[in-house]
Amino acid sequence: MMRRLMLLRHAKSDRPDNVDDHARPLAERGRRACPLMGAYMVEQGLLPDLAMISKARRTRETWELIRTVFPKDIMQIDEPRLYDASAKAILDVIHETPPDVEALLVVGHNPGLHELALKLIRTGSQQNLSRLQQKYPTAALVVIDFDASKWNVITESTGQLERFVTPKSISSGLSGLV
Q: Where does the source fall among the domains of life (predicted)?
């Protein structure tokens, strides 16, 4: 059985004065990127069965703007443990995913998402892996497929990088490089 993990870094956020990191909103650039990523996900059939969202304001705003373009409601869990989480902590949360969920979307933060993606990937497009190793920009989406019967058996170096897309690669037509 296949499991598909989609890791989405929150869109570009603002840094207003006197606002706690957890409460930072999206910047205008981030607000523009979200519908683009959502439309890409719909067009490519990358709809999750479940979305786990960090409780930080910028991740919640990213999810809200992306899901508005989805043709159906997606089950959502607001997950406080994803905020400022390490790769291991994020994987621990993923391991708790119910077995009936085949496609999981995690909306979170760097550096944890970046480190997790690199740890999980064993194979995939060398070009996409090289791009991912260099940088995991805001609003970027990593899709990793696993041959696994349950989420709790996913371990390091067992995934296949299915694609790595950024708002820039989509808007410039580079998303065909998946």
A: Bacteria
